[in-house]
Amino acid sequence: MGDTNSESVPEGIAIVGMGGRFPGARDVDGFWHNLVHGVDCVSQFSEEELEYSVAANCGASQGQKVVRARSVIEDADLFDAEFFGMYPREAEVTDPQHRLFLECAWETMERAGYSPDSYPGLIGVYAGLAMNTYLLHNLCTDREFAANFSANYQVGNYQVMLGNDKDFLPTRVSYKLNLRGPSISIQTACSTSLVAICQACTSLMTFQCDMALAGGVSITFPQKRDYLYQEQAMVSADGTCRTFDAKACGTVFGHGLGMVLLKRLEDAMADGDTILSVIKGWALNNDGSDKVGYAAPNLKAQADVIAMAQAAAGVHPDTISYVEAHGTATPIGDPIEVAALTDAFRRGGSSRTQYCALGTAKTHIGHLDVASGAVGLIKTVLQLQNEFIPALLHFESPNPKIDFVNSPFFPVAQPEEWKRGTSPRRAGVSAFGVGGTNAHVVLEEAPLAAPSSESRRRQLLLLSAKSEKALHNMSERLAVRLEANPELPLADVAFTLHRGRQRFKHRRALCAGSAEEAVERLRKPDSKQTFIGRAPDRPPTITFLFPGQGSQYVNMGRELYETEPVYRESVDLCAGLLQHHLHLDVRSVLYPETEVASDAKWRINQTCVTQPVVFIVEYALARLWMNFGIKPSLLIGHSVGEYVAAVLAEVFTLEEALSLLAARARLMQDLPSGSMLAVRQGVAELDGLLPEDVAVAAVNSSSLITLSGPTSALLAIQETLESKNILCRLLSTSHAFHSSMMDPIVAPFTELVQKVAQQPPKLPWISSLTGTWVDAQLAPEASYWGEQLRQTVRFDQSIDTAVQHGANVFVEVGPGQALTQFVRQHSSKPDELTLLSSLGPNDANPADLESILVSLGRLWLHGLEPDWQSFYARERRHRIPLPTYPFERKRYWIEAPPRTGSHAPAEVIPLQDSPPHSNGDGPLLVPNNVRQEAVPRPVLENARPSARPLIEKQIQLMRQQLEIIRSGSMRK
Hints:
Layout: E1 13-21, H1 28-36, E2 43-44, H2 54-58, E3 65-67, E4 69-70, E5 78-79, H3 88-92, H4 96-111, E6 123-129, H5 133-139, H6 143-151, H7 153-164, H8 169-177, E7 183-185, H9 192-205, E8 211-218, E9 227-229, E10 256-264, H10 265-270, E11 277-286, H11 299-313, E12 320-324, H12 333-347, E13 356-359, H13 362-365, H14 372-386, E14 388-389, E15 409-411, E16 416-417, E17 426-432, E18 437-445, E19 459-465, H15 468-484, H16 490-499, E20 506-512, H17 515-522, E21 530-534, E22 542-546, H18 558-563, H19 565-582, H20 587-590, H21 597-603, H22 607-627, E23 634-637, H23 642-648, H24 654-669, E24 675-679, E25 695-701, E26 704-709, H25 711-723, E27 728-730, H26 743-754, E28 765-766, H27 782-790, H28 795-804, E29 809-812, H29 818-826, E30 834-837, H30 848-861, H31 868-871, E31 890-891, E32 906-909, E33 924-927, H32 930-933, H33 937-941, H34 948-967
Parallel strand pairs: 6-7, 6-8, 12-13, 12-17, 13-15, 22-23, 22-29, 23-28, 29-30
Antiparallel strand pairs: 1-10, 1-11, 2-4, 3-9, 5-31, 8-10, 11-18, 14-16, 17-18, 19-20, 20-21, 24-26, 24-27, 25-26, 32-33
Helix pairs in contact: 4-8, 9-14, 11-12, 15-17, 19-22, 19-24, 22-24, 24-26, 26-27
């Protein structure tokens, strides 16, 4: 695909795809829109909107402030279970985090222009998720579920575990998408998703995989809930995140999902990927114990990890002009982070002040916990792409505890342009997890891509889906994208659809030359230019039909000669081989200059020229079809068309066939002239009407034959037939082929064939002389080729034999569409056959490129996959972001029962090893009744005795989780 010089390709990891679910946005584009327009995506709830109230259920202390704010993900209960092959009940008991992450993985692959089923390399998955509260809050408090859960423990419980445990998030993606690279679960609290990205980069650089999906998801339930504010704790007093601001008083938690698709930069450039940004360096470390408490930050460790990443990237801090901070807006956390950044930059040799912009997504969307690092990375990549840095929300004046004046940094109080310059723009992204695992990544702007090369005048667009409705939605989404972005190279759009989408049953194919035309055809699926079908379970049997003399015209296939290198090379090769036989460059007749076009029209109908040019066009078309990956299962040639079949079956070499054909045509040319008459009637109906010197030259179907003989005799027969209202017409031929007028040349030509060593056919081939298979005995017989030019063409019998052996798709590989019409007339059930042409219907309306592309698309509708690598072998194409699969999402949800009755006051459990001033974290409130409600009694009481030990073990594990929560080690 590419023409890059490997010595000039810089090292790094390319980000080639991004996806996610964000507060207030269903995808990356919506996320960027909200950032640019300064939308605060943290929701403030009324008391009626709350799905769960900590204050009401746990009891707030006297005077304690209740804050009803959180950023939420819309439609977290929806999922396309059928698409991923999941039963409804299986989907219901699967953590929505797993479900959304699975959908997003598919979308991220497609957004990058890749289909998991066709990518030849290894694809890894590195991911983590937040604590599963759907299991605790919804599933384990539903009594019906709990009873069934216990009664079917060995089956049901195992499935629930697979759908809810953190260990199975990445491996579920690998299984459903058939990915064979490393699949690793990462859990490091707030830094999880950025750590996952770092680990994926390491895997790529050590060639453990060739692409990697990496990210994290954090969605806890119920989403709409309040929290209790404590002064100097981590959460905000008013539900607003004021990172770096003087009024900063804590963060606001929320929900989201962020994911990237990574690839080695050299590979991405070679494969024509849209490179969004480049990861130049990354580093991970841990705080250790050199801090005041387990949950406290460590300034030195943060500075170390930043300095390590910069060193790994091989960049000077002065070249980094933006940092996406962890930026939780806690009174102590922000000053420590800026101090650590300053320390790292100074260690790296920077003495400059206030040159590097500092921002964070958290002021727009809150703290997304496990997903925050990946989301911060995505935001930074979007800024590089769009050359723009959105302002921090809720920023009025700098936090006085932060020494911005003497640091390299300034908070982004106003939107900033971030244009490309003479040196690459670079950025840092940080994520720090409770427990001390720190991650930092150094990004660089994507290299400018080489422009796409010229392509075909027309493009074939292919879409497929698992249902008719999804196919319709997919078509409309693509139409909307093209309508909004008419400048998109249509060839790159087609290439991305060809190479970057998985194939499903319901399919649509259309040909277009512009975005406007494509939009029109996408929105008119019932038009003659748009083809819709359902792929069969098994690919069809393809029969190549090669026409004979009579359908030729000047400029047949000219558009292909000018645009398709394989076709042109085949024509040029044949013309060169014929030069010394004909003493003529047949291209001057086939594709003449305008001033000699009238002479070419006369010459092309002279037998000595007609038969070679018909052969050339058919042979070049066959080679083009085969280069497109369409291999025939069966060959049938009509008269001179059998010579093309013989070459493809390797009975003759190309040189031998052209030599024999030139001699055949020359011998025929020297015979007295004659004519041929096409008659729409069967042989039996003409019994007694034909004189002795008129022969039945061809039986093309039960109601269409061709007569051959002296011109005067045929004119007389034509007059007789027309008087009986029998349709007939003279063909454009110079001689009476397949009649007694050929007798004088049968023996001389047979002698010529005897001098050529023929081989047994290597492809199935049905003779139009006998109507049966050409086998190892028949093909080498020289007498066969003598009889073949004299005797009747039994095309109808050939089609009979083909259909009886299961042939159902016929492609006419030559000028015109006569043979496919013969097949249609022959069959008693024409609707069960697919009849395709290679060239336009005639010389008045060539449309050759459109014709062959439409036929290629219709073959694809029938389940054949072209060889896209060969199709684009001479072009430089790019995968570009296009609309992803339109999932048909439904609600899969088990409701938690409403909580009623009185509730005990909240039990306040202070952290013993982490005083409030260590990092702004306060005590964690855990309601007394959690211990009683977390594990419903019916699970154990209704269980079979043999299952109780396993259930007790599960209960013990759940209690351990609760102890971890109470100890504060799970707090972010």
